[in-house]
Amino acid sequence: MNNKTGKGKLKVLVAFLLVFGPAATLIFISTRGCKHSFQELKDFKQLPNHSFSIYSPEKNSFLQKKLHDYQGDIIFVSTIQTSCPSNCQISLFNFRELIYNHIYENKRKKLKQVRIISFLTDENGNPINDASKFQTMTEILKDQIPNYDPSLWTLARGDVKAIYNIESNGQNLLKSSEKKNNHGAFQKFLLLLDKNSHLRMVLPANKEGEIRVMFEHLALLQKEYDKKRID
Questions:
Q1: Chain segment 67-107, per-residue pLDDT in tens
Q2: How far apart (Å, rounded) are the C-alpha atoms in residues 150 and 21?
Q3: How many CB atoms lie within 10 A of CB 10?
């Protein structure tokens, strides 16, 4: 691929960055800009209807769900490492300030409904199944997020590696991240899914700047639905 062709494609899709080392990352993205009110994010196809269990703090138990059960809502998918919950895989403070508070403030607006599903993992990305770990993590979230609402931000257990096993443009998010950055590297990525479970963006969840950019893309996606309603 010559330089001219590469630059042309970059205008359409900046993809697969932040996984391949300090100079590059694996991002599914159509554009980073938010200058145009009705600019649409790139659609990277619908994710499979994965099965997993969500934690109910009230009952200290789990309820079986499938990803497509959440169609109709915009979804963030993340992981939380139980041995380092606040800043290793997701920066709770920055996520709270830049994204969660917005979700909480708009939770009664149908077009702006957003849910967060966070899978508990160990340092290598393996699922945590112990209910006591979920109970502890719920208390941590309540402590660090005063307006924490488990109906908006749900803790889950399941084969999270299967969810992150995403193919696009001949690249694989899970395999590429682990090959370049060791096992469990995929955990730092935050997935943005639209109301039909289509992947629209991937960015790290442990850096303030990237979380801020993810919020901009959330706003773009919400504007996309506003436009469809008006049309």
A1: 999 999 999 999 999 999 988 899 999 999 999 999 999 88
A2: 35
A3: 10
Give the per-residue SS3 of 30-82.
CCCCCCCCCCCCCCCCECCCCEEEEEECCCCEEEEEEHHHHCCCEEEEEEEEC
Pairing verdict, β 114-121 and 199-204? unpaired
In a domain, 100, yes or no: yes
Query: Domain range holding 84?
Result: 39-230
Say if 151 falls within a structural domain: yes
In a domain, 23, yes or no: no
Residue 207 lies in a domain: yes
CATH number at residue 119: 3.40.30.10
Q: Are the beta carbons of 146 and 184 closer than 8 angstroms?
A: no
Per-residue pLDDT reduced to its tens digit, 119-173: 999 988 899 999 999 999 999 999 999 999 999 999 999 999 999 999 877 778 8
SS3 26: coil
Does residue 199 contact residue 44 with C-beta atoms inside 8 Å? yes
Give me the number of domains the chain comprises: 1
